[in-house]
Each structure stands twice: as C-alpha cells, then as structure tokens.
Amino acid sequence: MSEFQKSNRSDHADSIIKNHMIWSMGAGFIPVPIADLFAVSAIQLDMIRQMCKLYEVDFQQTQGKALITALTGSGLARLGARAVKFIPGVGSILGGVTMAVLSGASTFALGEVFKNILKQEALFLILIRRD
User: Fold this and answer.
1) Which DSSP string corresponds to 95-112?
2) Is the pTM value of this prediction over 0.90?
3) Contact assessment for residue 43 and residue 52, using Cβ atoms and an 8 Å cutoff
C-alpha cells in the first residue's frame, strides 16, 4: 500500500471519527436518561463498523473488542451526567450539556483507539496475504 493510500485512509478514518463525535454530542442532549445511552452506543457501534469496512477488517473479528471498550469506558464516564438529568428543571440542561461533552469525548477516544487497532490489524492481514 502506498503512502498516499495510507494517508488517505487515515484522513477518512479521522473524518468518520469527527462525524460520529458530533452525532454523539447531539445524542447527549436527548432529555430522556436511558434513551441517550442507547443512541450514543448505536452511534459508536456504527463508527466502529464503518472503520472496519475502511480498513477491510471483518466486523465480526472486532465486535467483542468494540462492545467491551464501549461499555466499560464510555458507559462509566456518562453515568454521573445521566444521574444529573433526573433533577427537575436545571438538571435537564446541566445534564444535557455534561452528557454531550462526555459522549463526544468518549466517542472520540473510542474512535482513536479503534483506528490504531485497525491499522495494526490491517497491516498484519497484509503481511499474511503476502505469504
């Protein structure tokens, strides 16, 4: 694979991460405490699916890693913001802003981790194909 293709793939991965980060931040503003969790998780799962397709890695191979990372890392980080949403009035606003920031940050972090994992896995698969 040429340097241009590697750079183009990396730029496309960054674009996927950025777009999903923005969508996750929007989903963080959903006023219903449990609905935001499902929306952000679905957005993160779609991001991982698109990145697997970009790096030509079977999604089934990485599905376990995605679920573990998404559930343990980002779920715990957003728990406090979700609890704040239960406070009437100001809780919805404060919880929404906090949840949006945490959702965007966790989606960005998850995307960067998976980009690095998929780069290594794609390189490994290329080396195997040569043999």
Assistant:
1) HHHHHHHHHHHHHHHHHH
2) no
3) no
